[in-house]
Amino acid sequence: MGIKAWTMLLLLSIVWGGSFFFNALLVKELPTITIVFLRVGLAAVFLWLYIAIKKIAVPTTVEAWAALLLMGLLNNALPFSLIVWGQTIISSSLASILNGTVPMFTVVLAVFLLKDENITRHKIVGVFIGFIGTVIIVSPDLESIRSSHFVAQLAILGAAISYSFASIFGRRFSRIGLHPVTTAAGQVSASTLLMLPLVLLVDKPSTLSMPSTSALFALLGLALLSTAFAYILYFRILAIAGATNLGLVTFLVPVWAGFFGVWLLAEKLSVSQLVGVAIIAVGLSLIDGRLWRRLKWFG
To answer: What is the dihedral of CA 174, 284, 134, 26, to 10 degrees?
Structure first.
């Protein structure tokens, strides 16, 4: 990758890592469903304005909107809700680490859902090592599987699995022929529609207090930077550097989320969590494969 691609990749990792920081601020003042609804709703407005300015084609077929509806559920509504709820209990740093297991679940699901997926030795070993790291992270809470801390960690892993399903399902959009930014706008719009009845029935917005100024800025950061702007960056990197290079962001997001958590939120990671994240990083590097091929450990 050139300097431009690396710069955009670094910026993407920062704004995605920042989403965990923004969540940590918002969960103190707003309920989970409201946070997710406002995140996807504001992002949808921003992206449709971008589409209008750029005069990008809008999907018109039932097939396209049905696919966007399911993508909105798998890639936004469900994982965002699980992550935000999880962060009401566990730290943003730990949440980002567990969410970084997405590539491992994607490899496993691809074995069963994709006929053309090439499962190599280093991917198999990487998944195995990554799961060991995940178990090490959650193991201190295994003594009480009903504890809120353990359930919150399972929620984040559930979000990672949902993202994995979304990444596999999302392959069909190249066949449908939608512009990438339209895909992003469509799915956050679908997520907004899915979350609307839940917000009205569960959170009852009219009963909520006005959030503080810092929470409002966190909400704008979450919606405009970590969602709308992040999607635009994502697809630009995909176009100039390819999916394989784009996958490197997986390694960087937990680093930035951890940095923001420790520096701005005074969070701390236990020894077992630090060991676990190191092992997960090794597993992810094996799934990616490039470093190990250079070392000639795998063909």
So the answer is: -60
